[in-house]
């Protein structure tokens, strides 16, 4: 694209590719949860908000939406612990919980969240992520995955770099 922002190296996943894949994920989730009273969907802020909005509007099973915000203490450190910045509104005991994440990189965030939520005794706990980086070898399985991508920094469709480029409609690779 000729008018690509100078921060960006290339468009990695187009608007059309995202929409098609999100539709497929919504179909799969709707099928797997048919018969369940409702899904308790947890969007991880900020990154997942656009993906979550598109995904949930295509679900054909009852669901409610809640949010959590997490933050890592320095992504550059090896230990890099995660903490909860904003918690859920409701207890999730007995609920069929689906975590919706933008991207799984090292897997640390998802693994932390999964542990915390499992401790709250949901009826079931599954994960959905739009993107997974190749280097990820997370212990937590991603039940619904949009795309596997190379180990580069991507922005757009909810993902940011220092809060920039979050609302681009496509997913783009940042220049190094
Ligand atoms: P992890 O704990 O290393 O898996 O990192 C997960 C979090 O880091 C994601 O939920 C994102 O918020 C952020 N992140 C990781 N890689 C990227 C990227 O390429 N672009 C934007 N955010 C990213
Ligand atoms: Mg995230």
Structural overview:
The chain is of the alpha/beta class. The chain has a single domain, classed as Rossmann fold (3-Layer(aba) Sandwich), CATH 3.40.50.2020. It has 3 helices and 9 strands. A 6-stranded mixed β-sheet has the order 4-3-2-5-6-7, with helices on both faces. A 3-stranded antiparallel β-sheet has the order 1-9-8. α1 (15-32) crosses α2 (49-56). The radius of gyration is 16 Å and the shape is globular. The two termini are 19 Å apart. The model has no long low-confidence stretch (mean pLDDT 93). Inosinic acid binds at residues 47, 101-110, 153-155, 159-160.
Examine the secondary-structure arrangement and name the CATH architecture.
Answer: 3-Layer(aba) Sandwich
Low-confidence stretches: none
The run of helices and strands is: EHEHEEEHEEEE
- Overall structural domain count: 1
**Secondary structure tally, helices:** 3
Spatially, the strands of the biggest sheet line up as: 4-3-2-5-6-7
**What is the averaged pLDDT score?**
93
CATH C-level label: Alpha Beta
- Please indicate the percent range of residues in DSSP E strands (runs of 2 or more): 25-35%
How would the global form be characterised? globular
Biggest β-sheet strands, sense, barrel: 6 strands, mixed
CATH topology value: Rossmann fold
Helix content: 10-25%
- Helices and strands: which structural class? alpha/beta
Bound small molecules, which ones? inosinic acid, magnesium ion
- The counted number of beta strands is 9
Question: Rounded to an integer, what's the Rg over CA atoms?
Answer: 16 Å
